[in-house]
Design brief:
- This protein is mostly helical.
- The chain contains 14 helices and six strands.
- It has a two-stranded antiparallel sheet.
- A hairpin with a 2-residue loop joins strand 3 and strand 4 (about 270).
- The chain is elongated.
- The termini are far apart.
């Protein structure tokens, strides 16, 4: 046995628990938990980004067995290895601590004096614990087997403990009981997949990895850039393109890259991702600072026109962001939150005054917008007129049917019925 087992001394309280394990990037050993802490944080030694924030809370262990529980957990994480053992995974140590706490809590509740320490236990005590497991797990043989396996850790790691189990439980007669068959379970009884089927599947799977690995990694990296951005947080500045034009030019350049490369737009179920598209404006230069909109005042009136004056140009009306993007199912606040740069540029265009001598001729884009708005208004008027005409036709049809019924009832004239062989007859 090592000096630790002979003397019963614990590691120093200042010893860092995961000092012998590789840590995550950016985490120093001095930032990890120490042996004397009642709660050990295991997250620095877990390299999976999807794992939970695991801890070991020794306050839930009985006080008398808390030192040996710490020694065992430290040995399984970073302690000296006994012969034939290896350091356990962090997740495995966390799962084992649950069953160890169950066993030590049960042992602490026993009244026999020999149950005060692990070294004084006899073969009857593990058998009593085995019978105790039937109560909380009556129909879970696998769970009972897991509980029994963790008890054996006090024997396997005895060289690192100050209080250890003096015997191996598997040599006790009756250990396992009716669940002994579960310990010797063999291969899965499900029929093997034929090699004629499994071979092509493996070949296609490996070929899929070789062909699409760069795209999958690139998509994963792009997804991680926007993973932790909240709803009410602005996206960081990202360089999606090198355009230096206006917003419309920047969006056109960005969409052109997807068209030329044959890649779909980022989104979900056919709906583009608004946050990714809103980041397109991050590297585009500011939009045009001039506008053909003329200043207006609620009290000022236009100057009277003379007969030979040229036709007056109407001021160009730029729609607000909310009205412009209602067709996308967004409110004004939602549009401004997801597309702050575009909203700011539109607001600047609406509020900017024309410079002296600047041409007031609207651009081709603004002419298309005006024509589109005009067509929409005419279409809406035609639709309303058609709906009104349909309602009038329905009303006239109902009135006609009602009047014909009243006329028939008032005249009392029966219609002629044709009887075969007798000609026309009057019938009332």
């Amino acid at each position: 046995m090592t000096a630790l087992a002979r003397s019963g001394a614990l590691p120093g309280d200042e010893v860092f628990v995961p000092h012998d394990r590789p840590l995550r990037d950016g985490v120093a050993v001095g930032e990890t938990s120490q042996f004397g802490d009642d709660v050990w944080r295991l997250q620095p030694a877990i390299h999976k980004s999807s794992s939970r924030n695991l801890i070991l809370n020794f306050n839930r262990f009985p006080v008398r067995f808390r030192p040996v529980a710490k020694q065992l957990a430290y040995a399984m994480l970073s302690g000296p290895l006994p012969q034939g053992e290896k350091h356990c995974k962090v997740e495995g140590v966390r799962c084992a601590s649950t069953e160890l706490r169950r066993f030590l809590t049960w042992l602490d509740s026993q009244a026999e004096p020999r149950c005060q320490r692990l070294a004084t236990l006899t073969g009857a005590d593990p058998l009593a614990y085995q019978r105790h497991l039937v109560g909380p797990f009556p129909n879970a043989a696998t769970q009972r087997e897991t509980c029994r396996a963790k008890v054996r850790l006090f024997w396997r790691w005895r060289h690192n403990l100050s209080d250890w189990l003096p015997f191996c439980p598997i040599h006790i007669d009756g250990w396992g009981g009716p669940d002994a068959g579960a310990q010797r379970r063999g291969e899965n009884r499900t029929s093997r997949i034929p090699e004629q089927v499994l071979g092509p599947l493996l070949v296609r799977a490996l070929r899929f990895i070789d062909l699409f690995r760069p795209d999958i990694i690139a998509a994963d990296q792009q997804w991680r850039k926007t993973r932790f951005i909240g709803v009410y947080q602005r996206l960081p500045v990202r360089k999606f393109h090198r355009s230096t034009g206006t917003v419309h030019q920047a969006i056109s350049d960005h969409l052109e890259t997807y068209v030329t490369s044959g890649r779909p737009l980022p989104g979900w179920r056919g709906v583009p991702n608004r946050k990714v598209l809103s980041a397109v404006r991050s590297t585009a230069g500011p939009g045009p600072a001039t506008s053909s909109r003329t200043p207006s005042s609620p009290t000022a009136s236009p100057a009277p026109r003379r007969p030979h004056d040229p036709p007056r140009r109407l001021p160009l009306r730029i729609p607000s962001p909310g009205r412009h993007w209602k067709k996308f199912g967004m409110s004004n606040a939602t549009f401004r939150r997801h597309f702050p740069d575009i909203a700011q540029e539109i607001a600047a265009l609406r509020s900017a005054r024309p410079t002296p001598g600047a041409p007031s001729e609207p651009t081709r884009y603004h002419r298309l917008v005006a024509r589109n708005a005009k067509l929409k208004r005419r279409n809406r008027e035609f639709t309303e007129t058609l709906t009104l005409a349909a309602c009038h036709i329905q009303r006239v049809t109902l009135e006609n049917r009602k009047l014909r019924g009243e006329l028939k009832a008032a005249t009392g004239v029966a219609r002629l019925a044709s009887v075969p062989g007798l000609g026309h007859q009057y019938s009332r």
